[in-house]
Amino acid sequence: MLAGAANPIENADLSEAAGRDGGNDHRLAFARDLTQCLAETPHIISPKYFYDEAGSLLFERICELPEYYVTRTELDLLQRDLPAMAQTIGPNAEVLEFGAGSLLKARLLLRALESPRRFIAMDISGAHLQAAAAQLQREFPTVEIIALEGDFNALDRLQGLPAIEPGSRRVGFFPGSTVGNLSPLEANRFLADSARLLAGGGLLIGVDLVKSPMVLHSAYNDAAGVTAAFNRNVLVRANRELDAGFDIDSFAHYAFYEPRLQRIEMHLICLRDQTVQIADRRFTLRAGESIHTENSRKYTVEGFRTLAASAGFTAKAVWCDPMQLFSLHWLASGVTGSEER
């Protein structure tokens, strides 16, 4: 179903929350990628551009929606099985969380671990990350908390990651279902880079599972319109940071499940002809054209374990909820024989 263009939530003033996150370099990258998106057909933009501070706040609201099963199912799994996960990870761990966000799940993990040495929160939204990390440091004064602004899609170019302390090992934490936003090639590259970065440790990663299309449709087309606002935020951000001139109310949120590719697709459908400008280039969007903003791939348990193995991990323990909606996987990296966990 094509959602209507207007929704009360899109009219909320998010300007104070949004600020100007990320600095000039990020705006230049955004301008470059949006220019490429509009110059090519089909129009495709990376979902990472949802996540300025306003987008991060909207995503936190999505996680609280009744239709969005992912967060509450994963939290139930963590609360049920964290003792086993913590035992698998072992003592004196240094935890690196990719796409850290609000750090809600990090709190649960840190409480469960035995003598964690350090926690590194990595996220693309710098201002949001700094505030969350400062709060976490107050709650865990004996653990070194580091906020590291960076893109998990560019781990090979990651700057500022400290050396692992003697007697510790680095463990990755990637909750949620963000790995599903990556194409199979991108997911393989991320996992391969992670396996190298986490050598001698491992990765605890959340993976959304294949399920009823109706459950998925509801999760990405919530009644309150929060997901629609989140989707349109990429255009709100383009207007604020790049003075692009999108008519926000003339784009409809459209999300559907493609069963052959086992993924949700999210689009913004242009409802009237309009012209926008990025730097010195002008683009005309026709009514009915789509900007493809996100894929959210769903996996079977065995399908994801096969993908992880192809990237250099050893797929070990997996935890699932009773309804088989969601899974958490422990992937060991560079550990063999009696040292395997």
Q: Kindly, what is the distance between the CA atoms of the first and last residues, rounded to a whole number of angstroms?
A: 46 Å
Which regions are unreliable across 5 or more consecutive residues at pLDDT < 50? 1-22, 336-341
Report the principal-axis shape.
Answer: globular
How many discrete domains? 2
Name of the CATH superfamily of the largest domain = Vaccinia Virus protein VP39
Number of strands: 13
Radius of gyration using CA atoms only: 20 Å
Q: Average the pLDDT over all residues and give the rounded result.
A: 89
Helix/strand order: HHEHHEHEHEEHEHHEEEEEHEE
With strands numbered from the N-terminus, the spatial order across the biggest sheet is 4-3-2-5-6-13-12
**Count, helices:** 10
Largest sheet: 7 strands, mixed
Task: Please state the structural category.
Answer: alpha/beta
Strand content: 15-25%
User: Helix coverage percent of residues?
Assistant: 25-40%
CATH class of the largest domain: Alpha Beta
CATH architecture descriptor of the largest domain = 3-Layer(aba) Sandwich
By CATH, the topology of the largest domain is: Rossmann fold
